[in-house]
Design goal:
Quinone Oxidoreductase, Chain A, domain 1, 347 residues
């Protein structure tokens, strides 16, 4: 099979590998679609502890496809079944796992992060992931492209629950990349009265408007624009969907009284200490939080929204590539050309 393996920083190779053989309790997925994530960009740029010349890693964790083989002892799945896969699972019965937050446990594992993932024609799904319910059947009318995007949208669903976005809220999303647009879609679904998206990239702002004409897009001086749009009150919810430290400080400055701020975009390690005016947090009674990954419950809820047609995700895909063009797919996203890139595999 063809697979994209990461050997280290800027060292991604397309190789011919044996098709994995599923062991007891495991499944073998024939990949239908695998989307590129910002995490894939960072891993290619900076390397990763689990991707070395001695132990290269097939990256990619946003996936959907068809079950090719079923390992011994696996029930509830069949060959030919269409599924998508939540990549994060936990091999321990820790307190967080029992509470449904195994994805936050320090010992969590993830396909495409710790072990071979979806930038390959086939993916072996470990027994623990199968047992924990990480493999979700998808309806016939849901495309592989859309099903693979359930994973990042489920991360957005996690942030929505923390932000408690509700009817009539004004939401500001800083960052008009694919994740920022997903936050805008989720905010509208939650009943937000106005959704404002800010970015320095005019092309991405235009694409966000093409997806939903009700989105208010703002470039230029964010402070003045937001004050005018909110009558000086500020947004009720602010989501930072970009890896820029100054944006986090700005979010605190702009938030309305009783506002909720979600730091969604992670920061580079060397710029992760950010000055915040805690007097603003104190006197405006702000809730400042962060979110990462998603629980299986949140993944399942997001898949239901896609299945029911409440969320439409295929419009986010602006670039499609074969696995041989994995570098180009990652480069397209890294350069902010378009929104989501994905790898498409023959049936």
């Amino acid at each position: 099979m063809k697979a994209a393996r990461l050997f280290g920083p800027h060292d991604l190779r397309i190789q011919d590998l044996p098709v994995p053989e599923p062991g007891p309790g495991e499944l073998l997925l024939r990949t239908g679609s695998a989307s590129v994530c910002g995490t894939d960009i960072r891993m290619l740029t900076h390397g990763h502890a689990f991707a070395t010349p001695e132990s290269p890693l097939v990256i990619g964790h946003e996936m959907a496809g068809t079950i090719e083989r079923v390992g011994a002892g696996v029930g509830g799945y069949r060959v030919g079944q269409r599924v998508c896969v939540a990549p994060n699972y936990n091999p321990t019965a820790s307190r967080l796992t029992v509470a449904g937050d195994g994805h936050l446990d320090p010992g969590y594992r993830a396909l495409g992060i710790h072990e071979d993932g979806a930038f390959a024609e086939f993916v072996r799904i470990p027994a623990l992931a199968v047992q924990q319910g990480n493999v979700f059947p998808i309806a016939d009318h849901v495309s592989f492209a859309e099903a693979a995007l359930v994973e990042p949208m489920a991360c957005v669903f996690n942030a929505y629950e923390k932000a408690r976005t509700g009817p009539g809220d004004t939401v500001l999303i800083i960052g008009a990349g694919p994740i920022g647009v997903m936050h805008a879609q989720m905010s509208k679904l939650a009943g937000a009265g106005r959704v404002i998206i800010n970015d320095v990239n005019a092309e991405r702002l235009a694409m966000a408007r093409e997806i939903d004409r009700s989105f208010l897009t703002v470039g230029g001086d964010l402070r003045d624009e937001v004050r005018q749009l909110t009558g000086g009150a500020g947004p009720d919810v602010i989501i930072t969907a970009c890896p820029v430290p100054e944006v986090q400080s700005l979010a605190v400055e702009l938030a309305a009284v009783n506002g909720r701020i979600v730091f969604f975009g992670g920061l580079p390690k060397d710029r992760a200490v950010v000055p915040l005016d805690t007097n603003i947090i104190h006197y405006r009674q702000l809730l400042v939080t962060g979110t990462t990954r998603q629980s299986l419950r949140q993944f399942q809820a997001t898949l239901a929204l896609v299945t029911d047609g409440v969320l439409r995700l295929e419009d986010l895909v602006t670039s499609v590539h074969p696995v041989e063009e994995t570098k180009q797919a990652i480069a397209a996203m890294a350069s902010a050309r378009g929104l989501k890139s994905r790898l498409s595999f023959a049936a």
